[in-house]
Amino acid sequence: MIFTLKSTRYGRFKIEFDLINTKPEKIREVLGNMIVVQAEPDYVLKSIIYVAIGDLFDELPEGVKIPDYNLSFEAGKLKATRL
User: Fold this and answer.
1) Which of 21, 39, 50, 53 is in Cβ range 3.0-4.6 Å of 35 for a Cys bridge?
2) Dist. CA 66–CA 57, nearest whole Å
3) CB-based contacts of 71: which residues, under 8 Å, 6+ apart?
4) How far is CA 72 from the centre of its chain?
5) Closest to 50 (Cα-Cα) out of 39, 58, 41, 42
6) In which element (H, E) is residue 10 found?
7) Confidence at residue 2, expressed as pLDDT on a 0 to 100 scale
């Protein structure tokens, strides 16, 4: 049996270690808005690189590379900007 995910809204983004250490409540808020399917530390960039599924991300056709996003809060609301 082959298992696949039905969502087409994937995004890749990074969160710096410093932000994780200083604002853990914001990180919980961010990650609570999506389903993380991959997370890898990058010690050179001092970050964790995430791949996640979420309504914040654009729909993607099958076979397209997962795009990078910048996540930010604007007027208290989480926003994803495609890079």
Assistant:
1) 53
2) 10
3) 13, 15, 30, 56, 78, 79, 80, 81
4) 11
5) 39
6) strand 10-16
7) 60
Residue 1 CA to residue 57 CA, distance in Å, equals 29
Give the 3-state secondary structure of residue 20: helix
The predicted pLDDT at position 16 comes to 94
Q: What is the pLDDT of residues 14-57, one digit of tens each?
A: 999 999 999 999 999 999 989 999 999 999 999 999 999 999 99
pLDDT band of residue 5 (cuts 50, 70, 90) is confident
Distances (CA, A) of 71 to 1, 2, 68: 36, 32, 10
Element (H, E) at 27: helix 24-31
